[in-house]
Amino acid sequence: SRPKQMKFRVTENEKEIILNNSEKLGFKTFENYARKMLIDGYVINLKSTDDKDLKYLMSEVSRMGNNINQITKRVNTISQIYSCDIEEIKQSQQEIVHLLRYVVKNINKIKNC
Questions:
Q1: What radius of gyration, in Å, describes the C-alpha atoms of the chain?
Q2: What is the DSSP string of 21-75?
Q3: How far is residue 76 from each of residues 66, 69, 70, 79, measured CA to CA in Å?
């Protein structure tokens, strides 16, 4: 139910690049890819970022959450927190920030293509 048609011209090289990008991003038709690009301006394909990095980031966030829960239980039980606990949280947080910056940098590379 899309009655309006739009046309535009490209060089052979541009056509090849466009179709290659469409295929890499997993679009089944050029029409769907073109519509998405023209409406949203860009497509971010998270599959193109390294899955290992995203899985590692998720495990780090989960590990940090578990550590915080354990420390919270101890503080509530014995009213004491150790400096090594604080240091572990800080190190985990720094690792997560590092990974997030890496992922954002790769996403920005995709956006700027």
A1: 23
A2: HHHHTT-SSHHHHHHHHHHHS----GGGS-HHHHHHHHHHHHHHHHHHHHHHHHH
A3: 15, 10, 10, 6
pTM over 0.85: no
Q: Exposed, middle or buried, 56 (CB in 10 Å: 0-12/13-18/19+)?
A: middle
In the chain, where are the structural domains located? 1-43, 47-111
**pLDDT per residue as tens digits for the range 73-94:** 888 888 888 888 888 888 888 8
Encode pLDDT of 25-73 as tens digits: 889 999 999 998 888 876 556 555 566 777 777 788 888 888 888 888 8
* Whole-angstrom distance, CA of residue 92 vs CA of residue 63: 8
CA 34 – CA 36 distance, rounded (Å): 5
